[in-house]
Amino acid sequence: MVHKKLYIFVVSIPKKLFRLLASFPGFYFKTILSQSAFRAVYAGPRLRHAGSGLDMCYVSETTPTIIALSRPSSTLPLSLFCNPTSQLLEHLGKYHPTSTHVHLVFNLRGETPGYLDSELYPARVHHAPWPDHHPPPMNLLLSTVSEMNAFFAFEQDDRKKIALVHCKAGKGRSGTLISAYFVAHENKTAMEAMGVFTTKRMRIGFGEGVSIKSQRRYVNYMEQWVIGMQRRYVERKVKVTTVSVWGLKGDVEVSVVGYTAVESCSRGTWEIAPLWRARGAPGKRTNVVWHPNVEAMTGDICLGVQRWAGNGWIKICKTRAWFNAVMEAAKRDGDSQQSGRFEIPWEEMDGLKGTAIKGRRAFERCVVDWEFVEQGDMEIARSIDIMNDGEIELADDITIIGDSGDEGGKLMCSR
């Protein structure tokens, strides 16, 4: 509680006041700014690098080298809590100089990166953003894992590869991607991969690194993709036909949302697209069946639940659960069938913003039925191409279809 109050107090101070205080030579506040006291409060349960004090950790110190970190920033007051870009570049220059290493930063923030790509030069930045506290679209997760593997697998010179993965706190979204990479290319199970990330990133007794159940479900999908689907994923358009809820309590809203790709700040990102919503009648607990008949552009579907009290003025419950229809269908009878079902009890729903808090119980269990509308090959239209001078370029004329294993996927060039 003390840490939370201190965080709210410091964040509420205007940026101009920070700059003004820091501009006076010898002023005691300038000494505070040079230390990592605020960063320690912000990091909370996450482990920090012992040598630099940065909010980051080496998830894999050998080949490949993967670093998980909170968002970099060069502006006040964010640089007090996050990783200052100057200190991050200083750390890379000291331990991983460009003469012997190549750096690639994976930005997973669906909000804004919080910095310009040029601020991290000579490191290059690859953007694969999705919303906070949500799992990634399955095709985005697969493509980004392939990007990372292609980066590590490409051999041009003797320089070692360093991948830096960040979201906002370097925990949920970063842990999802890193764990998925371990499953796909380091021969780990989903539980082993998430366990490694927790050990490296979190303090003992402060919970899991990947704690949101939907994100953990998608890491398990990666294990299914490797073992049960022979590394093949076909994106399919989904039509949600029926939503059935058992034990639905009064004044509860149930919704279905999906993902849509949009252009934001000259970069592609994924945003949540509402598809359908309905509200249960006030009164006693009932069993309800709805027929939304709405279509989602990808196989990623989210079931959202909210509950109100006081005639709709007080929200006492908010929870959700993401699943991928293609992966769920493959669990049952392969990916050739034309329909599927996802069933989830109340206990398996996501908590609020990564916590276990969902509010007051709204139902007992829910079942979502769907059918596939059309079928098309999954095409990932961006890949990594390393040029002769060692720099990294996103090549639009290379397409990755599926993934052929540890060789970085099957590349189809149209030069």
TrEMBL record:
Keywords: Hydrolase. Residues 142-201 form the Tyrosine specific protein phosphatases domain. One of its GO terms (biological process) is regulation of phosphatidylinositol 3-kinase/protein kinase B signal transduction. Its EC number is 3.1.3.67. One of its GO terms (cellular component) is cytosol. SUPFAM superfamilies: (Phosphotyrosine protein) phosphatases II. It comes from the Eukaryota. GO terms for molecular function: phosphatidylinositol-3,4,5-trisphosphate 3-phosphatase activity; protein tyrosine phosphatase activity. The active site is at C302 (glycyl thioester intermediate). InterPro entries: Dual-sp_phosphatase_cat-dom, Dual-spec_lipid-protein_phosph, Prot-tyrosine_phosphatase-like, Tensin_phosphatase, Tyr_Pase_AS, Tyr_Pase_cat, Tyr_Pase_dom, UBQ-conjugating_AS. The keyword Hydrolase applies. Residues 45-229 form the Phosphatase tensin-type domain. CDD domains: PTP_PTEN-like. This is phosphatidylinositol-3,4,5-trisphosphate 3-phosphatase. It comes from Terfezia boudieri ATCC MYA-4762.
